[in-house]
Specification:
The structure is a single chain. The chain is globular, with a radius of gyration of 24 Å. It has helices at about 15-30, 135-140, 155-160, 205-225, 245-255, 270-280, 305-315, 350, 360-370, 380-395, 400-420, 420-425, 435-440, 445-450, 455-460, 510-525, 535-540, 550-565; strands spanning about 1-10, 40-45, 45-55, 65-70, 70-80, 95-105, 105-110, 120-125, 125-130, 175, 180-185, 190-195, 235, 260-265, 285-290, 300, 335, 580. With about 600 residues, it is α+β, with helices and mostly antiparallel strands. Helix 1 runs antiparallel to helix 2 (about 135-140) and helix 9 (about 360-370) runs parallel beside helix 11 (about 400-420). It has a domain at about 1-195: Aminohydrolase, N-terminal nucleophile (Ntn) domain (Glutamine Phosphoribosylpyrophosphate, subunit 1, domain 1), CATH 3.60.20.10. The strands form 4 sheets. A 6-stranded antiparallel beta sheet has the order 2-3-1-9-8-10, covered by helices on one side. It has a 6-stranded antiparallel beta sheet with strand order 4-5-6-7-11-12, with no helix packed on it.
Length: about 600
């Protein structure tokens, strides 16, 4: 993982005490042990670029800070081809990254098409602060060690568990938008942004479809081509769904050595289907079962306070503790891959939630995304949510609006903060987050991508032997209702649902009374901290039953409550016992 902060003085040079403070703050803002952090710095006229990493050496390219043609360049994330560092910032560069460029009197920070490697910025009377960690930017811009939260901005965290805006939990700190560039020259800041790619009309012939899908296929193959020369196989986290299946097929087609692992019980659909995929592709498959009690009628989970502390530390208050964040392990160069954000190839998760594609239904989806559960919130919080929704509601193409909301926020805010956990362990390859892949996908008609014909065709191109392996959950959208299949057809053999089993139970969605009580006591015991944005009576009603009815929202409230009451920064909680969560029906 790499962390950057650029400091640009509005007058003269960056003060020495500001630099000293930034160096000290890194131990708070970088969620790894202090003894594994390495630093590099560059200082020019009125500008300083500071960088840190937990990478053990300088073998990963490009370097943490490098000089090219009179410019100093830092790269947060990775490039498909490290030699492309000289082309930054550039729209056509492949990889998953944000770029940091400095020279005397100038600083530039830029995001890629999905801003999954974020850039945050703040301003003081004397200084511009631009960094890759929001808390670091906030504290570096503060004259003293005091955190000021933007409580109104946190209303979206309680609704959805991540940010549906460019706001952060910290006053004065803003996230740079996708496909955007921030420049500071001689103390003056400008921000420019390029709209996301516009989708072409749907292809009208089989030949045109093949050509369009071919461009996406080539972009995907380019992301994994460098992995052929690695000294060990790629480890792919494989499930029974669509997105990791594409990656398994992609690695197979690219002749990249790989193995697969699946988390779950033997009876879970993910495990059952992943075994079949691994067998068809002739790759090694490992199943990792969750920890269980001896009777296997319950699971042991960490105390919510420990979980919240680690989530706040890693995700800086921009992802709910409801989510499972990858815990810290020492940095490893071993190649790993997962299907995160694969919905990009299917017009985004918000469109995938729709069964009714009528205009009113899509407008309702946009509204509910920003302003759901209005009774829970204050009038000010609801008006703020509606204001955030307005520019998206004004877009004439509803499918495009929902597609782009997914890229801007579900990838660019939720995934951007949540993936910090895995980045501490290494730099995983994420083909669905690659700048060129995302651009190629967004250039395809949303309705066509939503039909899932695009990704099904990709799988057949890469690994036709997976054609008849069932998909977990619902059948392929484009094949729904089709009852006939001819031998020359490329359609799937009927529906491919997978029967749910007892292994599909999750303690997060069925928390039980003991875990509910811990969440309840934290939220209701500190309700004053939340009252600027929530209705106290509605919060009490949420926790009225022995087992909370909306576990996700309970966790969102719990996360924001612990943030506002100062759980982090600070020492992690100690001596907390694990919680036993029983299955609702152990006999299943």
């Amino acid at each position: 993982m790499r962390v950057y902060v650029a400091l640009a003085a509005k007058r003269h040079d960056v003060p020495a005490d500001v630099l000293s403070r930034a160096r000290t703050l890194i131990e708070t803002a970088f969620p790894v042990p202090a003894d594994v952090i390495r630093a590099r710095e560059w200082h020019g006229r009125g500008v300083s670029l500071l960088a840190w990493t937990n990478e053990p050496d300088d073998t990963r390219q490009p370097p943490l800070i490098s000089e090219h043609g009179g410019r100093v360049i830092g790269l947060n994330g990775h490039l498909a081809d490290p030699a492309d560092v000289t082309r930054l910032p550039g729209d056509s560069v492949g990889g998953c990254f944000s770029a940091w460029i400095a020279r005397d009197g100038e600083v530039t920070a830029s995001t890629a098409v999905n801003r999954v490697c974020p850039v945050f910025y703040a301003e003081t009377p004397d200084l511009h602060v631009v960094g890759s960690r929001a808390l670091l930017v906030h504290l570096a811009a503060q004259p003293v060690d005091r955190i000021e939260h933007d409580v109104l901005a946190l209303q979206t965290m309680i609704r959805q568990g991540f940010f549906l805006s460019d706001e952060t939990p910290y006053k004065g700190v803003t996230a740079l938008r996708p496909n955007a560039r921030l420049d500071v020259r001689d103390g003056r800041r400008t921000i420019s942004e390029t709209p996301l790619p516009e989708a072409a009309p749907p292809p009208t012939s089989a030949r045109a479809k093949r050509a369009a899908i071919g461009e996406l296929a080539e972009a995907l193959l380019a992301t994994v081509a460098p992995l052929r020369d690695l000294s060990e196989p790629v480890n792919l986290a494989l499930t029974g769904g669509r997105d990791t299946r594409i990656l398994a097929a992609l690695l197979h087609a690219a002749r990249v050595p790989f193995r697969v692992t699946t988390n779950g019980l033997d009876t879970h659909p993910d495990v059952i289907i992943a075994r079949r995929i691994a067998a068809r592709l002739k790759v090694e498959h490992t199943v990792i079962a969750p920890q269980q009690t001896a009777q296997k009628d319950a699971v042991l989970v960490e105390h919510p306070l420990s979980r919240a502390w680690e989530t706040l530390r890693t995700c800086e208050g921009m992802t709910s503790a409801y989510e499972s964040i990858v815990s810290y392990l020492p940095y490893s160069g071993r190649p790993t891959m997962s299907g995160q954000s694969g919905e990009t190839l299917r017009a985004g998760s918000l469109n995938l939630l729709q069964t009714d594609l009528g205009d009113k239904a899509l407008l309702r989806r946009i509204t509910n995304t920003f302003a759901k559960d209005e009774k829970m919130f204050t009038a000010e919080a609801n008006e703020h949510a509606r204001e955030l929704a307005r520019p998206w509601l004004a877009r004439p193409d509803r499918l495009e609006a929902l597609d782009h909301i997914y890229i801007w926020y579900k990838v660019g805010r939720w995934q951007a903060s949540a993936r910090a956990g895995s980045l501490r362990r290494g730099d995983p390859v994420r083909p669905f987050l690659d700048n060129r892949v995302v651009r190629a996908a967004l250039s395809l008609d949303q309705g066509w991508r939503l039909s899932e014909e695009v990704i099904y065709d990709l799988i057949l191109r890469f690994a036709p032997q997976l054609r008849d392996v069932p998909i977990e959950g619902k059948p392929w959208r484009f094949a729904a209702g089709m009852t006939k299949r001819w031998f020359w057809s490329r359609l799937p053999a009927g529906h491919m649902p997978t029967a749910k089993t007892g292994g599909g139970w999750s303690w997060r969605t069925s928390p039980g009374p003991a875990l509910t009580d811990i969440l309840r006591r934290q939220v209701l015991g500190n309700l004053d901290a939340l009252t600027p944005v929530v209705n106290p009576d509605e919060v009490r009603a949420l926790f009225a039953d022995p087992v909370v009815r909306k576990p996700a929202q309970a966790w969102h409230l719990y996360t924001v409550s612990t943030l506002l009451t100062g759980l982090y920064p600070g020492k992690g909680p100690e001596g907390l016992e694990q919680i036993t969560v029983s299955r609702p029906d152990p006999a299943r």
